[in-house]
Amino acid sequence: MSRKNEAKRQDNFFNVCGQCNSCCKGVRPPVTPKRRKTIEDYLKSHPIQGVEPPYFTSENEYTHPREDAKGYCIFYDKETRLCRIHPVKPETCVAGPITFDVNPKTKRLEYYLKTDRICPLAGRICTLKDGTLQKHLTSAKREIRRLVLELEPESLKAVLKIEEPDTFKVEEEEMKKAKKKLAAAKP
């Protein structure tokens, strides 16, 4: 994708996401050890006023960004309604509104799109006729594969327990590099 087209897609996402905050409240995106280090390194050179370590918690059996008293991710800027660590944000944040699961029978990685009822961006990218959905799906799959490969097995199991209502399957694939991990991830 050209830089111009990528910038246009990002602007489109920012314009839609800037009107909503549902992804940044009570969602708890998983963070791998590698992504955690990347975020912490980023914050050393891009400190956020009022946001101090520890940046993460391991509640819910996996590591995710801490939340403020109202349940918002500590990296969410309530004034701009944007992510303050956008260049290095967690994989599932990059992938949104695409999410994932593992099929317990086939042990294949499945990709789901949230409905516009819970995510205005999902509705928007589905109506665009310029291939935005497929371009984003390609990017989302790359991020989700990375997450699956880098998460500790117990963390992946915990993440897969999270229900994802109002989604529909858009694609699935076999992940040969993670076949054993996916087989152990869901009963």
Characterise this structure.
The protein has 187 residues and is an alpha+beta fold. The protein has one domain. The protein has helices at 3-17, 33-45, 91-95, 120-127, 132-150, 153-160, 179-185; strands spanning 56-57, 64-65, 76-77, 82-83, 98-102, 109-114, 167-173. Strand 3 and strand 4 form a beta hairpin. The protein starts with a helix and ends with a helix.
Whole-number mean pLDDT: 86
The coarse silhouette is: globular
User: How much strand content do the residues show?
Assistant: 5-15%
H and E order? HHEEEEHEEHHHEH
Helix segment count?
7
Query: Sheet with the most strands?
Result: 3 strands, antiparallel
Walk me through the topology.
Blueprint: H1 3-17, H2 33-45, E1 56-57, E2 64-65, E3 76-77, E4 82-83, H3 91-95, E5 98-102, E6 109-114, H4 120-127, H5 132-150, H6 153-160, E7 167-173, H7 179-185
Antiparallel strand pairs: 1-2, 3-4, 5-6, 6-7
Throw out a few tags for this protein.
187 residues, alpha+beta, three-stranded antiparallel sheet, two-stranded antiparallel sheet, 40% helix
Short summary:
The protein has 187 residues and is of the alpha+beta class. The protein has seven helices and seven strands, in the order H-H-E-E-E-E-H-E-E-H-H-H-E-H.
